[in-house]
Amino acid sequence: MGSVAQFLNQYVITPIREITLVDLLDIVILAVLIYYVYRFIWDRRAGKLAVGVALIIVILIISSALEMHALNFILQNFYQVGIIALLIIFQPEMRAALEKVGATPMTSLKNIGEQKDTEQIIEAIEAITEAACDLAREKTGALIVIERSTKLGEYIKSGVVINAQVNAFLLRNIFFNKAPLHDGAVIIRDYRVYAAGCFLPLSTQTDIVKDLGTRHRAAIGMSEISDAPVIVVSEETGTISLAYEGALKRNFNYSTLKQELLQILDPAAGTKSQSHRRFGRRSSPKSKS
After folding, report:
1. Which tens digit of pLDDT belongs to each residue from 167-183?
2. Domain 118-288, second-level architecture
């Protein structure tokens, strides 16, 4: 028993007593970094490659332990060159991850003390949802991006600045198939129709359903590199879809799309939307499925 107590005191109790606040902070930061690295890898095509890299490392350790000199030499050189190759291959994914990491903290500091205009958010969401449902009923293609913390200035420059109040009639006119800006995307900034006819980056995912066209790939691509929700209306089927954080959800109607946007843009506005009557002319959301 004495040896057990000595072991516990030397290897358990004493190290715990020596833990400082800096050590705890170090552990927390490391855990957060590992978590985000894990999410970055497994949410993207890098997940399958990570398994292969781990297997190579295991073989490298085994070959070193068993003194397999030829195999060890090849794997060591492959490992050194492979790191650079991975940085080149996954440059788009790494850029997207760094953009999100860089945008969120700065925006959080900037918005300290600022109050969201819940009424303005609800009005904008209802106008966007109404326009999307009208366009879906007419099978008119549309692509609407709602800018959040990640600024989309470089994509706004590719279009035409409008800077008008969000209005369902305006959005329907922009995406009318004879209109000059109907092929591009509309970018909503500060809950205003800021630009139209914008070009978006296409997703590089290889497992996207083949039936989805360029609009859907552009929506997914924009959601991969920013925190913006992107609404898509298919001109072939009239289906309403929503891309967010690299994932695409389909088959929305007026009610479900409005609720989803409220949850993304301002969860607190969800309860107030029930009593909001500004857009009372739409009596039956089901008619816009």
Report:
1. 999 999 999 988 888 88
2. 3-Layer(aba) Sandwich (3.40)
